[in-house]
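In the previous chapter we treated chains in isolation. Here, by contrast, the input contains two separate entities that must be folded as one system, with a combined length of 225 residues.
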Amino acid sequence: NAGVTQTPKFRVLKTGQSMTLLCAQDMNHEYMYWYRQDPGMGLRLIHYSVGEGTTAKGEVPDGYNVSRLKKQNFLLGLESAAPSQTSVYFCASSSVPIGELFFGEGSRLTVL
Amino acid sequence: AQSVTQLDSHVSVSEGTPVLLRCNYSSSYSPSLFWYVQHPNKGLQLLLKYTSAATLVKGINGFEAEFKKSETSFHLTKPSAHMSDAAEYFCVVRGNSGYALNFGKGTSLLVTP
């Protein structure tokens, strides 16, 4: 069972470059989330979506954009990467609000 | 604002001894609270959740947590630690938006032989 799949798992960028992280879930979940995890900071919500075609800002949205064109996919974009965006990014999905979150295994991004 | 504070960043126990990971919450209404576990280089997995039913919540792998409104606490316990319990544990509360969850900073559990 695939669950939540994130690609790529690792990426190194130079400052100013752009990239997109893809999250795909095969559980038909309505709700999808992007978090970033930094040492000693726990997980912080970047953006989330409550259904196809919807997105909303989380706690730390600056420098990121998202899209949810298809129910199963949630894309996180960095238009101009900065060293402060070096982090591990986690995608998660849930079937109901405040339900159990199912996480991907993370994408480690380094911005030089 | 709904938030949680994990009182210990690191906890070390010996195998076979009890585990206590402490979490205090702040919420303006009856909270929804969770504990998640993250094993090294893995995603997070739900251990248990409290949603205003029983105050003692049982989760997977022998963990349980007790909701204490008077103390605004939701501590995670396990009677006997196993080596496989070594991981990062996160206390989580429902956020203001109603859709998002707010994570604590995590407690790293070390289990020694």
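The CA atoms of residues 82 and 91 of chain A lie 20 Å apart. The radius of gyration of chain A is 13 Å. Compare these points with the single-chain example from earlier in the chapter.
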